[in-house]
Design a protein that fits this description.
By secondary structure, this protein is an alpha+beta fold. It has 7 domains: 125 residues, Rossmann fold (3-Layer(aba) Sandwich), CATH 3.40.50.140; 107 residues, Topoisomerase I, domain 2 (Orthogonal Bundle); 193 residues, Topoisomerase I, domain 3, CATH 2.70.20.10; 115 residues, Topoisomerase I, domain 4 (Orthogonal Bundle); 57 residues, no CATH class; 59 residues, no CATH class; 47 residues, no CATH class. The protein has 20 helices and 30 strands. The protein has a 6-stranded antiparallel barrel with strand order 9-10-13-12-11-14. Helix 3 packs across helix 5, helix 5 packs antiparallel against helix 15 and helix 6 packs across helix 14. The chain starts with a strand and ends with a helix. The protein binds one DNA strand of 25 nucleotides through helix 3, helix 5, strand 21, strand 22 and strand 24.
DNA sequence: CAGTGAGCGAGCTTCCGCTTGACTT
């Protein structure tokens, strides 16, 4: 083969191969092929921070294959992405494949079209070493921060924690949002809404309005209603204003995650998984991008499709440019590969996500929507306040025909905007009813996963390829949890004026009900407090923006990368050493009081396995008693009474089948123990008040489920079972599971066959590996 | 899954960004 072209993604390789013809072989390197070893710091701090790179274990085969292919080629074209990471990937390829510089060429393109690719081939260049240095600075900085801060946390707080430039700021956002919510004081006000009839004798046409003023107290609201009793209501102003709305730009990774979350209820990782499938099946362009750009080819395809479907006047092509800090724009925006395909044949999730992408892309090239806003002001003769009616009429739908972006804002159930009846100044209206409704101010909402991504992108923290992994990391570390919250009932005043009667009633509403929002945990809060106290500069919201600026200077040749690192590392490392030596354990310990029975001190603090209470002093001769906190309890709100309750476990609640039933709280929450077996309580069971009857119910439920799961049992060997699991049938023997070969029918296996499968199964690899990924 | 928590000390944990399978048992 004459030419070897190397790109990052295999799907991209396949597409490009078709553009270039038979003289070119296109292969993929699957992203970075070398990195710092995860086992060590791998940076020679005293030798100019020189990094020790090694071929990543999962890339040895790729490197071997590419080295061979390169040897057999006349020219190697490095076509990795056109950004800092892409440049570094190319440089690492030169090093790892030991490429001969004279036959190596670097090319870039940021859209996968035939023109872009063939043009790139005619404009090769050398590797930009300054840009590579900027990437090395980024890599080394992240490693130093992550691998020096994390061990400090292990020593001062608890093992296996982590900190980093990106994740720690993400946690901070969630912790601080929770603090503002905690501080928030809801206040109430009275909103007045009124409906009027245009004609005294018929109720055919009704106009809904809201008073321009909101009252702070019930008395003021009632006083106003009193005034309305004998008032005349007269139109004193009508106003019509044209309004134009423009479509949102096409999707980037971050906006796709947000809209898929709002419109389809997808988690950030689900969106990425489904998008990956669409990408691999050739239905959409690359899904990890921060670019808003559409290729000319895509725009003309969109134009054609819009004309076919909606007509010429719905077309308005546009080029969007990114306003996001640090956007690197190595790809196109996320769009359908073929815009004349509004749907794809695939599973339900893929179909829905694809349609969303199709609509958003098409809408971005459509005409503005034209609306007319109408405002009618109504005078109240006995009061100085006015009622206002707002209407909105779509004159031309434009892009709204296809797509409207959603928002995260909580909607106040206001007066719906629609067409208003034709009214003139001095028209008299007839009061039908006027209602004063008590309303409450709401705190800022907690972050959803996607809303957090949006915030991170605004701060320039993280990249399209890391948003989803970062969000799963901070959940895996148990710094934050994704939770629902059940709403609470709340009473509110509802005062109506109908005819001449003012009637006051109390109504109830459900408030504060939320789904899948991020809450900080005790550990998350504690780690954040620690970092804030000792390393506030690193978790400053502007830290990334500040270092990004320096990376840019390195790329521009105005700064030397390891000098920049040196300037950061000096004070940073000194602070690490100082904190290590001079600060005490940081475990949020709080004295709650004394146990009334033993007079021993009771504390709450973070232990090796999370939040716990402790009875007795650590330095006393007698070993203290410990107990874990229940789900939903928190380090900073736990009371002495809560703690005393926790020390009641384990306790007996009755007997079942001649065996004692005991309740306790363990590693995985509250459970009932019966005959050496454990049965988890459900979230709605309170371990302090659970009855014998309920415990037995739980045991029988679990037994029933076990039974349903069982496909086959053997009298001869009680330990061996054929079970039905998440990934289909499998064999379970002494708590170890074995895969059933695809050509075997699970239900008809004999005991001997099962034992043969167990014997033939490959021996388990080191257990450590499994634990670390858990 | 499993009922731990001091202290002793071994040996472990950890970052961000670029990419997919292999695999879950």
């Amino acid at each position: 083969m004459k030419n070897l072209v190397i790109v990052e993604s295999p799907a991209k390789a396949k597409t490009i191969e078709n553009f270039l013809g038979k003289d070119y072989s296109v292969k993929s390197c699957f992203g970075h092929v070398r990195d710092l070893s995860p086992k060590f710091l791998s940076i020679n701090v005293d030798e100019g921070f020189s990094p020790n790179y090694e071929i990543s274990p999962d890339k040895t085969k790729v490197v071997k294959d590419l080295t061979k292919a390169a040897k057999e080629s006349e020219t190697v074209w490095l076509a990795t992405d056109e950004d800092r990471e892409g440049e570094a990937i190319s440089w690492h390829l030169v090093e790892a494949l030991k490429l001969d510089e004279s036959k190596t060429k670097r090319i870039t393109f940021h859209e996968i079209t035939k023109t872009a690719v063939t043009e790139a081939i005619t404009n090769p260049r050398a590797i930009d070493k300054k840009l590579v240095d900027a990437q090395q600075a980024r890599r080394v900085l992240d490693r130093l921060v992550g691998y020096e801060l994390s061990p400090l946390l292990w020593k001062k707080i608890k093992p296996a924690l982590s900190a980093g430039r990106v994740q720690s700021v993400a946690v901070r956002l969630i912790v601080e949002r929770e603090e503002t919510i905690k501080k928030f004081q809801s206040s109430s006000y009275y909103r007045i809404i009124a409906s009027f009839e245009i004609d005294e004798n018929s109720n055919a046409t009704i106009i809904n309005t809201e008073l321009s003023k909101r009252f702070d107290t019930k008395e003021e609201a009632i006083a106003f209603l009193e005034k309305c009793k004998n008032s005349e209501f007269k139109v004193i102003n009508t106003e019509k204003n044209p309004l134009k709305k423009s479509p949102a730009p096409p999707f980037t990774t971050s906006t796709l995650q947000q809209e898929a979350s709002r419109k389809l209820g997808f988690s950030v990782s689900k969106t990425m998984m489904v998008a990956q499938q669409l990408y691999e099946s050739g239905n959409i362009t690359y899904m990890r991008t921060d670019s808003l750009n559409l290729s000319n080819l895509a725009i003309s395809m969109a134009k054609k499709e819009i004309i076919t479907q909606f007509g010429e006047k719905y077309v308005k092509t546009r080029k969007f440019t990114s306003k996001i800090k640090g956007a690197q724009e190595a790809h196109e925006a996320i769009r359908p590969t073929y815009l004349n395909k509004p749907q794809v044949k695939a599973d339900a999730s893929q179909k829905r996500l694809y349609e969303l992408i199709w609509k958003r892309t098409i809408a971005s090239q459509m005409s503005q929507a034209e609306l007319e806003k109408t405002t009618i002001t109504i005078d109240v003769s006995n009061a100085k306040e006015n009622f206002v009616a707002r209407g909105e009429v779509i004159k031309f739908d434009g892009f709204l025909k296809v797509y409207l972006e959603s928002t995260d804002d909580v909607k106040e159930n206001g007066i719906e905007k629609g067409i208003l009846p034709p009214l003139k100044i001095n028209d008299i209206l007839f009061r039908k009813n006027i209602i004063a409704e008590q309303k409450f101010t709401n705190h800022t909402p907690r972050y959803s996963e996607a809303a957090l991504v949006k915030k991170m992108e605004e701060l320039g923290i993280g990249r399209p390829s890391t948003y989803a992994p970062t969000i799963s990391t901070i959940q895996k570390r148990e710094y934050v949890v994704k939770q629902d919250k059940i709403g609470e009932e709340r009473n509110y005043d509802y005062i109506s004026l109908i005819s001449n009667d003012i009637e006051e009633v109390q109504k109830t509403e459900i408030t504060g009900q939320i789904k899948s929002k991020l809450f900080p945990t005790d550990i998350g809060k504690l780690v954040n407090d620690f970092l804030l106290q000792y390393f506030d500069d690193v978790i400053d919201y502007n830290f990334t923006a500040k270092v990004e600026k320096e990376f840019d200077e390195i790329a521009a040749g105005k700064k030397v990368w390891n000098e920049m690192i040196h300037e950061f590392y000096g004070p940073f490392h000194a602070k690490i050493d100082d904190t290590l030596k001079n600060s005490s354990k940081f475990i949020g310990e709080r004295l709650l009081g004394k146990d009334p029975k033993t007079d021993k001190n009771i504390f709450v603090k973070i232990g090796r396995f999370g939040p716990m209470v402790q009875m007795g002093d650590t330095d006393s001769e007698e070993k203290p008693r410990f107990a874990g906190l229940k789900n939903g309890q928190s380090l900073d709100t736990l009371t002495l009474d809560d703690a005393l309750d926790l020390f009641k476990f384990p306790y007996a609640i009755g007997t079942f089948e001649d065996e004692e039933l005991t309740v306790a709280i363990g590693r995985f929450g509250p459970y009932v123990k019966h005959n050496k077996l454990f049965f988890s309580l459900s979230k709605t069971d309170d371990p302090l008040t659970i009855t014998e009857k309920r415990a037995i119910e739980i045991i029988e439920e679990k037994r029933k489920k076990e039974k349903e799961k069982t496909i086959k049992e053997f009298k001869e060997n009680k330990n061996l079972k054929v079970l039905n699991g998440k990934w289909g049938p499998y064999i379970s023997l002494n708590k170890t599971n074995y895969k059933i070969p695809k050509d075997k029918d699970a239900a008809s296996l004999s005991l001997d066959e099962c034992l043969k499968i167990v014997d033939d199964a490959p021996k388990k690899k080191g257990k450590k590996k499994y634990k670390s990924t858990k």
